[in-house]
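Page 47, continued from p. 46.
Same chain as before, 335 aa.
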Amino acid sequence: MLAMVVAVHSIAMVYFEDLDWWQAFWLTMTSASTTGYGDLSAATFWGQFATIVLIYGMGITLLAQIASDYVEMRLIRKEMKIKGRLEWSDMQDHLLIINTPSTNTERYLSLMVQQVCNTPGLDDVPIQILTPKFPEGLPETLRAKGVVHHTGDATSPGMLYSAGVANARYIVVLSPDSLNAHSDSLVFDTLHRIQEIGTEAFILAEAIDDANRQRFREAGAKAVIRPIRAYPEMLVRSIVAPGTEQVLEDLFRYQGDHTVRINVSLYDVRWADVVTQLIQRDMGTAIGFEDTMGNIVTHPKSSEHISLNALILLIGEDQVTPTGAEVKALLAPKN
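Result:
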């Protein structure tokens, strides 16, 4: 309608005011925008009458309505973005986090996002969260880091499409409730839906019951980890270095490879000798030690000479844990 008014008024200015087409259009636009430079104006009765009817009566009103609608549209879009009601199906190469923990949600996500931002290779990856948890908007701590979210349940039809799951670079499927084994069913359902859509993304899933790990892998998960709410950093490490989740999990349990502390006093020994001697005798892998001041030191330089009160070893499931006396007999400097 505004374009029609501009066209008709421009024609009227050419016909009644004997202006060329550019001058007619210029006069129309300066009048409709209420700028009124005064360099051109309608002088004839019919030119002035056309301006009153077309510009003052219609053009200015239409232009103001368009501006008002545009501002309103931007405000509505901003509100929809804050409340997670926008679709992000065109998002590319992003990290998609599906589900959120049922407790301490903001703290967990803040720690996880911070770790992602601090990890080389992930620091420039856009982050999106698909969750029903924040219907009124993400906490400011997350929005400040550029995180966006889509409000909804991944098991609802169409939600994964609108979250751009097919275009994601990484997908993390969290257990909604790390204390409820039923969460594994929701994770499996989500993995199955992702598999139906198809994606080249690296998928990491949380499993409460170890018996479900293989099912998750068959459903498309490249890595499976137990929910560890206090250390989301472990989850991030699993994304950038697949397989480390198994090593890290083993450190927390006695089955499989596990860590032990051997109380033994050694003085002025070379760290490289400690590591190699223990490995050669199949007595475990030294990963750290407690120095004589009580400080825990991990991964020192191989050439460093150390004195210690205790060794921290990584022991295999089939290895026998050595005693302090055995370690001292092996590593103590010979006179």
